[in-house]
Structure formats: structure tokens, C-alpha cells
Amino acid sequence: APAAEIGQVMSAVLCLTSRRGTRAQSIDTSWAEARVALADPDRLLRLLADLDKDRLPAERVEWARRLCAATDSAAELTPERLLPLSHGAAALCEWVLAVCAYHDAHVEAEPRRLDLEAARASLEEVARRNRVTCDRLDVLDRRKTALQERLATATAEKASFEEACATRAAQVRRAQRLVASLYVEGGRWTATRRKLKRERRQLAAGAAAAAAFAAYAGPLCATSRADLLSGAWPLDIFPRAATTEVVSILSGPARQIAWRSEGLIDSRSLENAAIAERSPRYPLLVDPHLQATAWLAARHRSCLVRVAQDGVGAVHRIRAALEARSPLLIEGVDTEPSVELMPLLYRHHTPRRGGRLVLRLGGADFALSDAAAVGPVFLRTQQSDPHFAPGVQSHLALIDFAVDEHGLEAQFLESLLAAQAAPLASRRAHLESELLHREEEHRQLEGRLLESLASADGALLDDELVARAEAVPAAKATLEAAAGAAKDAEAEVGAIHDVNRTAARRVAITFSLMAEMHRVCPYYLFALDAFRSVVDSSVAAWQRQSYPSESREGEDSKGGVPDGAKVESNSQGEDSTRSVEDSAPGASTVADAAEEGARAEDVSAREECDDAGKQRARGDKLGGASGASCTMGHRRGRSLCECVGWATYAFAAAALPEQQRLAFAAHLALRLASAAGGLTREALEDFVLGPRALATEPQPEALAWLPEAAWLAVQRLAQSMATLRDLPRRVCEETDAWRDWFETEEAEMAALPHGICNLEALLIVRAMRLDRLAPATRAWVEEVLGQRYAAPLPDDLEAQLAHASPAAPLLLLLSPGAD
């Protein structure tokens, strides 16, 4: 091994010549590494010669200096000290010390060098600027004369520059207006974009659900349609993402408003109209109440061609309507379409030359330019429960237009609104149309603005573009104002609907019962138009009785009675029926019944209104004005309900024999109780049809006095009525009291244990004392509806004859023995 001094020198050399980026502590300075370096002298000399002394890390220099520095055991390494040991080591030591000295000098002189370079650069910049300034002075001297000559021209151009400045200022103002307008719409556009993204994700599912609904839901009732869309059916037919109302997918708001103006008020009717318009098959309308016929007549007006399928010259008239492309309604399709119409309805077109289609009707060919070259075609059956062959549904779109209770309630609410507040109804319709117009206007302005922004090629400050940008917020403000006015009008309409809802529900339930009477006997067929005329007459009578000064002004503007047949039955108790298809009652009879109903409530209502007026006069002191107004509204609603309810009942009961009128009144009262939530559907079915469930508990021996059928009925009643859930337990625990009541001759007049009364008492009589059901029902009807509903209905033949006419004949159906 060499001397330690030689090893220290080689360690310092290795430290200074190692690769850049290596820390001094990490450098291998062992003698083995030194031997490797000394083994290649040329490489070592190149390392020494190529050393970047200016960028040498201070850490390595300090490390090399410590290796050569003096220690407690050895003196400082110098070339003179190493010369006796090795000339090469002495030369390397001198090199190391020179590098350290250079580094110290470099560190000390670096700031001065940098200052010198900066001073030189500054001097050069000053010299350059001086040259530039001199050059510019020369140029300015040369331009001085030219500028003096151009002074006159510049003065003349001053005006043009000022005009340009004004133009720029106007552009700045337009830019500010554009930015302000776009800023107002930016947030809404962002929200709309998110909404459209969400709707786009559900678009396919919604379209599939709407298409399937339009294809298959036509024959279904409202409840089945709701179950179909909500997934209540066991078959997963519709996608779960299709939660949007199908009517909004199949039609737009404008079309829905048009349908409402044409007489389709309830949601199911709107669905039927959407299906009829969107279905690629010809619609076959099940229209027992002629609602679809009235809609088509209002929609197409005088253009609608109505042809009876089996009428004389039907094929000729159908062909003429097809040639004129007129709307066509084929009536009387009760079982299946005529064989002669099969090619048209089933679209059996034969292609011929020239791209034309040939349709064979009635044994003759009929040329079409294309398959859609005919007007809308509709088929109609007036049967309420038709039966068609399976192939009919595959070629025609079967749509059930029969109205249900909810639809009737909505329609009668609108009728009552038109009768009581016609200006409000007109204002609401006008506001709806205006709101739709404003929405369309805003949508068009917004579309034109976005199109202009997308196609603008740098010219964003165009006057037309700025005007469009400002028109959008203005249209939005107008739209919001129209929406607010429509909302206020809808609130007013809702308040009137709340007052009239009880009357509308009662009228709807009455007609539903009348529509079901054909199951008792085929003679009982009541037309909806005739029933509506009864309602209109009764409302007019109620208004004359309640507001004589207001109604007297409009008496002369009332329309006449619709054409049809008026039928009365005898009151001798024999089975007789009434056919009122497309009929209307005598106006006097309806008005008399309505005025009688109005007078029954008028005295108490006026007294209550007087009390409410006094309370309203004291409203500032007591704060009860709103409560009095609400109370008056409910009293008016009850008065209207009683008036219209009695008139419609009298209209229906006039065609019934005496023994069926009580049953009809009882059904009406039960349906009203069921609609109010006081009677479950199961209890109603048990009351009409009797208990249909097996006993869950054996009859105790203590109840041996009770027939087994009555015990079964008691248990079934407890299952269907929550308020009578513990009835079997009560009967078992209080056997004596219940037995005393059961053995009473007139059980319906005796008080039940625990104070049970009203509807519950009637249900118990139905279950335990079936023999007393008729008098119990009569007493309950008198208590719930009034005594006149249970009393015989007098027949005024003279009044009927006075208002009979060739358009409304009087038909009397007399049984044997009737005078």
C-alpha cells in the first residue's frame, strides 16, 4: 500500500473529478478506486484537463480541501512534502491546491464579473439607444417638413377620426349590452343543458314506453293504464326509466290545449286523443257516451264526413270522402268492419306502375298517389262493452272513450266553472294560449340567437345580433309575467273547483250508476248529452234561486234542449223501463226539480251568508274575514250539490219503477260514502252481493240464537271495515244486548250497542237482519240524502206534455193494469 499522503491526494482527485450530481459523501475515494484511475493515465489526464472549474460544486471543493488540510497527526499536504515520496503525487497535489485556489478566486470575483458584464450590456444598450435616438432625430428632422405639409390634411381627417371614435364607443356599448344579455341567459342555459342531458338519457326508454302505450293501452281503463305504467302488473312490459307522462311524449302542450278546447278535459281522454293521432292503425273508437264523436265534430267541424257502415250508399260516400281527403268517421262498427271496407281498413294496397297504389272498394278500383294520400279515418261503435274478433285489434287501434267517474268529475267541474264564472274560464283559456304563444316566441328567439352566435365569424357586435340577445331576456320576462298571470288564474279556478268538487263528484257518481243500469235491463240507456243538459238546467235554476239579479240577465241567452226522446214510466209499481238514448229531459221538469232543491237549501244558506256577512264586517277586529269567506264558499258548494244532486236523481228516477228507486238512491248514497272514504270497496261489494268469504272463527255456543249466515256476514264485515274490526268480539262479549237487538221486530229503529249508528248500523242490519234491510235502507237514505229521496216521485204528465215536441217526443211504457 502506498503512503497515506499519496492516498489522500488521490482521494481529493477522485472527489473533484467524479460525475456531476454525485454527492461528495457518496464518492468512492478508496485506494482501490484510485488504482483504477491510475491504471489509465490518458483518461486521468483528460479528466483533469476537461474539469469544469467554473461550475465545480463548492461541496466537493471543501471536501478536497479537508483531505489536504493539516490534522492533529499530520501536517498539511504540499507538493514539497510529497516530492520525496512521488513526483506524480506532488503534481496531483499541486493540481488539487490550484483548483481549490481557483475556486476561491472564482467565487470572490464572480459578483464583480457579473457587474462588469451588466455594465458592458448597459453601455451597449445606451450606445444602441443613442444611435437609435440619433437616427430618429434624423428621421424627425426629415419628417418635420412632411408633417407640416400634412397638417392641413390631418385637420380634415380629425372629423373622420372622431366619427370612428364614436363608432368604437357604440361598439363598446353594444358589447356591454351583449355581455349583460348573455350573462342573464347563461345560468338558465346551463341548467337547461343539464336538464336536456338528463332527458336524453331517458329519451329512448320514454319513447319506447310511449310507443308501447299507444299500441296496447287503448282498450284499457284508467286504473289498468296507471298499473301498466307504474309496474303494478307482474309482467315487466315498460322500462322503469319511463316515468314521464306518456301524453307529454306523444303530444305537445299546444295540442293538449286544443284538445281541452274541443271538449277533452280529463287525463284519460287526452291519452285517448294522443293514441288516436299517433297510432299508425286506423282508430276504432268505443264511444258509448258519444264523447269521441263530439270531439271529432269540434275538431274537424263541417269537414267531418259521418257514414254508417251498413247505410245506403256507404261505400260510395266513403270513396268520395277519400278522394276529397276529408276526415271520415265510419259509424256502427259493432262487431267487425264490413267486408267491403277490409282493403281500406287493413291497408291492402296493390302497387301499380308509376308509383301509384290501387285500393279496391265495393268492387271498384280506387287509385292513390301513396298510402298516406287519404284523410284521417276513424271507426266508431256505440256499444259500451263490444266484442271484436282477435284479428281486429291487430289491424285497428281499439280505443275506449267511455268516461269514468274521475273523467266525469273533471268534465262537470269545467261545466260548473263555465256556468258560474264564464269570464274566468275564458281568461284562463286565453292565458294558457298566451303562455303557450310566449313560450314558442321565447323558444324561437332563443334558437335564432344561438344560431347567430354559432355562425358568427368574429362579428359578434352586429346590431342584429345584439338586438336578438336583448330580445331573449325581454321575452323571458314577458313569459314569466304570463306564467304568473296563468298561475293566478289557475289558483282562482282551483278555488272554484274546491267549492264545486262535491257537486261534480256527486253528479259523476250519479251518471256512473245510470250508465250501469243497462245491466239491470237493456232499456236503461242514458245519453251523456241529455244528462249534461239536466246538469246545466239545474245549475241555471240554482243560480236563479241564489242570485236572482245576476241570472235574470242571462236567461234569454240559454240554448234549447237537445234533440232526442223523452221517456217516462208509470208509478204503479210494475216493471217498466226507459230508453233515453240521445235524449234530453223536459226543461221545465228539470228546472222545477232543481229549483225545488235550491229552495230546500236556500233559507239556511241565506241565514249562514248573513251571519258570514256580519262576521266579515267585524273582520278587522276579529280577523275572521278569510274564515267567513271560506265558510260561505263551502255553504254555496253544499247548496249547489243538493240542487244538482236532486235534479239528476229526479231525472234518473223518473224512468225507474217505484220499487227500484229506493235501490238506486241507496246505491247512490253508498257510492258517495265510498268516494268520501267512509266505506271500503270490499264492504260495498259485500253489502250489494252479500259476504263471499269463509268464516275464520267457529261460531260460539253462546251465539246459537244467531243464524250461521249472519255470523259469517259479521266476520266478513269485520274484515272489510276497519271501524268494525272488533265487531265479532263485541257480539261474543255482550251477547244479551245484541240478542235483544236482534230479536227486536223493527231492528232498524232500535239503538245498537255501543251507540253504533249511520252507515255502520246499516251494514250491521245487512249482515244480521237481512229481513229489515229495506226499511233500514230507506231510513238511512232519508238521513243521508234527505226524505224526498226515499219518498215516491210524483209524475206530472201535463208538464211533460207541455214541453214535448217532434224533436223530443214523449214515450210512455205502461205495464198491464196501469192507467
DSSP helix count? 32
Q: Which consecutive residue ranges, at least 5 long each, have pLDDT under 50? A: 239-244, 551-591, 601-627
Describe the global form.
Answer: elongated
The gyration radius over C-alpha positions equals 50 Å
Overall mean pLDDT:
76
N-C termini distance: 155 Å
Q: What is the helix content? A: 55-70%
Sheet with the most strands: spatial strand order:
2-3-7-1-8
User: What is the strand tally?
Assistant: 12
Describe the protein's architecture and organization:
There is one protein chain. This protein starts with a helix and ends in a 6-residue tail after the last strand. The protein has 819 residues and is mainly α. A five-stranded parallel beta sheet has the order 2-3-7-1-8, sandwiched between helices. Strand 2, helix 13 (314-323) and strand 3 (328-331) form a beta-alpha-beta unit. The chain has 32 helices and twelve strands.
